[in-house]
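Lecture 7 notes. Example A: sequence first, then its structure tokens.
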Amino acid sequence: MPEWGTYLGYLAAIAVFMITPGPDMMFVIANAGRWGARAGIAAALGVAFGEAVHMAAAALGLASLFAANPVLYQGIRYAGAAYLLFLGVQAWRRSKRPLEPGADGTEGPGLTRAFTRGAVTNLLNPKMILFSIAFLPQFVDPAAGGVTGQLLVLGATFVVLQIAVDASLGLLAGRLGGRLLRRPKVGRAVNTVTGAVFCGLGVKLMVG
């Protein structure tokens, strides 16, 4: 466990990080706005699962492999971009068809698929790997011993708080979106916007 002063500083730092809109937050909101609150929460849990994997890898020293291997890093980056572009094109195709029933997450992509999409999107984001390597060690005190344990505590804290923030946003966006999606024109527009968000995230990830 890090010293309390260091830990409080870490909490302040990640609080700023989490309230700043980023790819994961936009992904959760887009899912919730299109398919409902439950799908948004499922996507948030999927994102958190991906973050947990990244944090565990950083704690165990596995993430250094990606930092030392530019080819592997670029491969993951392009795979993540391609996946987001694929989701964006799917959403655009849906915007040309009648609105699917169920804006509460019970239909549409399904909760399991929303979770999987969130997890894959986060796992294929190489910036999370670099974030884990560069950010977490700044709050570790080697003199206190148990470096791996300190990294695991910091990583677990990050994941728990990220769930709270993203799930809350997913719930809010889902409830607002669910009311609007009852109107066919609005539903098709949401599909178009969702596609634009996914494609935009994919392009942003591709160009770095």
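Example B, a different protein, same format:
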Amino acid sequence: MFGERLKQLRESKDITQQDLADILGVSVGTIGMYEIDKRMPNNKNRKKLAEYFGVSSDYLLGLSDDPTLTDTEAEQVDDLKAFLKDSDMRAMFKDYDLWTDEEKQAVLTVLKGQKALRESKE
């Protein structure tokens, strides 16, 4: 069920398996395996897929026939789409899963500081 839905969603967006592989940071072969239900994405990539396609995880997994997102999920999807359109951001975070916890925390601290600074100016 997952593979069938993934392929249908990918084709509806008119993107290739390579495009989707680039978005997730996996090989095109991995996408092919997903689509024939020979392999399942990890939780992080399953979430990315749901957000990218604007559907619920339950829909992707075949647990629901309703692809509708909540308002919060829809906002997160919009944020993710904007993020993915920025090639510098995609390149910078492509290997995020290889970062140490300390590296992740350092980047998060900087981002929170920037947000607080921006909000203080508003």
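Note on Example B: Residues 87-122 form one domain. The chain has two domains: 2-85, 87-122.
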